[in-house]
Amino acid sequence: MRLHDPKVTEVVIATKNAGKVKEFEALFGAQGIVVRSLRDYPDIADIPEDGDTFAANALIKARAVAAILGAPVIADDSGLAVDRLGGAPGVYSARYAGEPCDDTANNRKLLEELRRLGPASTDSEGEAGPDRGAAGGSGEPVRLSGAQFICSIAFVDAEGKQIALVQGECPGEVLDGPRGAGGFGYDPLFYVPQLGRSMAELTMEEKNAISHRGQALRKLWAELEEAERV
Ligand SMILES: O=c1nc[nH]c2c1ncn2[C@H]1C[C@H](O)[C@@H](COP(=O)(O)OP(=O)(O)OP(=O)(O)O)O1
Ligand SMILES: [Mg+2]
In sequence order, which residues have a C-beta less than 8 Å from that of residue 120 and are 6 or more positions away? Predict the structure, then answer.
């Protein structure tokens, strides 16, 4: 299947995450492509995500669902890597606070782990800028650590053969408390310095323009377009 083929009107994304589905719907919808997800196939059982990397897990999910549906499939494996936690929760982002997965519990645990380390200022990488927050200070938000969102997207054919595997990253900082009601997952704790807002305070369009997922998907499209030229 070629995503840019005008005959392609539908893609299957191997995710149960409603937040991801909405973002993919906005991104693919702009191209007139309808998104199907595992929310449309409730009988498909949970797929063990036991890879060591986002890329490995994206391939595992894509291949598992391609084998069941006998169709090409896209999968997204993503998460948050926090500098002061040595890259945690990383591939364990969804189950950071244990299972069943719970965004609120995960956010609470992230704050607990960072607060346990003490004030971020003692761990500065020398980039204390004018808008780096200080508790009780100017009203700027307090940030506990640098972090990045990472998203791997795998695209496999009906036989499970890898067609493309791409990754996008979005740098930011972890806030000391939630801000905003949009997005999903860790978005309320993820501050985007260049916009001066949390991910959960962005519109869908703003988030997709800068997010790890938006970047990964645009890389996928670019790769597929390039492949069609040769
Ligand atoms: O844009 C994002 N904004 C906020 N949080 C995010 C984002 N992107 C990933 N995340 C978090 C959510 C979850 O804690 C983990 C993904 O885990 P991940 O296994 O890839 O997804 P999932 O289990 O929710 O759904 P599924 O595996 O069915 O695709 O990282
Ligand atoms: Mg998952």
Answer: 84, 114, 143, 144, 145
